[in-house]
Design goal:
single chain; 307 residues; alpha+beta; D-amino Acid Aminotransferase, Chain A, domain 1; D-amino Acid Aminotransferase, Chain A, domain 2; 8-stranded antiparallel sheet; 26% helix; 29% strand; globular; binds 4'-deoxy-4'-aminopyridoxal-5'-phosphate
């Protein structure tokens, strides 16, 4: 478990990082957050934080949408995170959770004229989805939040009620995950993952205006597929029935990493097992994220000083 947190401007024992039941962010979901992975590299005895700068830039964008003023730049947030991880001393994969929220202890729904607070904690973390090599998903009967209601491109705490409704309905019905349709009936993403499929020799993924979170793993996969496999990604809206007939399908995300979808409701995807494209992309992703591929070393920030 986490021993420390960055809270109210300094690193404190985790027990001291507490909020009141009156906190605005707790009552109204007025916060935004990130999820960042750090991978332990046994050979190099080093913990690498994956695409940290990009995660903190996205936190800044989420904060702009929520009228949250962050007193730290993305680079400063990165330095704080490294300090926190050094104090924790993890020698295993970890998950970092930065959380910016409205901290006032008042009644009143709004975003302006409130006090902002920032917390960061990190904990050891393994798989988010046990069935990474072969997930069975359904199409959720819940719809994705609409950009004109709760913008999905911001990682807003309150918006995760949508994800939680989707995930619980799927799991309680015996599936591992669910794909969610946007208000137009096209595939947007999974409950907490972006969606890709392989069709006719291309990767296809919903565009950023399909009510998705603009995923950093999604971005990494688009680059790895193009650079290492010569595989182009087409960003276009995806019909539900295309998922039933595609060659391969998978989910991407910091938590889920790259998870093969092998069955959608009662239909197998492709051959009903992880296909060659997903298998290769998983290898490429883990190689890059664990700091084993020099070409993508700029995605990995080492936690220990290299002297
Ligand atoms: N969509 C949603 C709703 C998510 O919560 C996540 C996880 N952050 C993703 C997509 C994947 O984004 P990323 O690859 O940046 O983790």
């Amino acid at each position: 478990m986490a021993q420390y947190a960055f809270f109210k401007g300094k690193i404190v024992p985790i027990k001291e990082a507490k909020v009141s039941v009156m906190t605005h962010g707790l009552n109204y979901g007025t916060g935004c957050f990130e999820g960042i992975r750090a991978y332990w590299n046994e050979e190099q005895e080093q913990l690498f934080v994956f695409r940290m700068q990009e995660h903190y830039e996205r936190l800044h964008r989420s904060c702009r949408i929520l009228h949250i003023d962050l007193p730290y730049s993305a680079a400063e947030l990165g330095r704080i995170t490294l300090e926190l991880l050094r104090q924790e001393g993890y020698r295993e994969d970890a998950y970092i959770r930065p959380l910016a929220f409205k901290a006032d202890e008042i009644i009143g729904v709004r975003l302006h004229n409130l006090t902002d607070e920032l917390a960061i904690f990190a904990m050891p973390f393994g798989r988010y989805l046990e069935e990474e090599e072969g997930a069975h998903v359904c199409i959720s009967s819940w719809r994705r939040v609409d950009d004109n209601a709760v913008p999905a491109r911001a990682k807003i705490t309150g918006a995760y009620i949508n994800s939680a409704l989707v995930k619980s309905a799927a799991e309680m019905d015996g599936y591992n995950e669910a794909l969610v349709l946007d208000q137009n009936g096209h595939i947007s993403e999974g409950s907490a993952e972006n969606f890709f499929m392989v069709r006719n020799g291309y990767l296809v993924t919903p565009p950023v205006n399909s009510d998705i979170l603009e995923g950093i793993t999604r971005d990494s996969i688009i680059e790895l597929a193009q650079e290492e496999m010569g595989l182009e990604t087409v960003q276009r809206s995806i019909d539900r029935s295309e998922v039933y007939i595609c060659d391969e399908a998978f989910l991407t995300g910091t938590g889920v990493q790259i998870a093969a979808i092998i069955k959608v409701e009662h239909r197998p995807v492709g051959a009903g097992e992880m296909g060659p494209v997903v298998a290769r992309l998983r290898e490429l992703y883990f190689g890059a994220a664990k700091g084993r591929n020099p070409k993508y070393r700029h995605w990995c920030t080492p936690v220990s000083d290299l002297d």
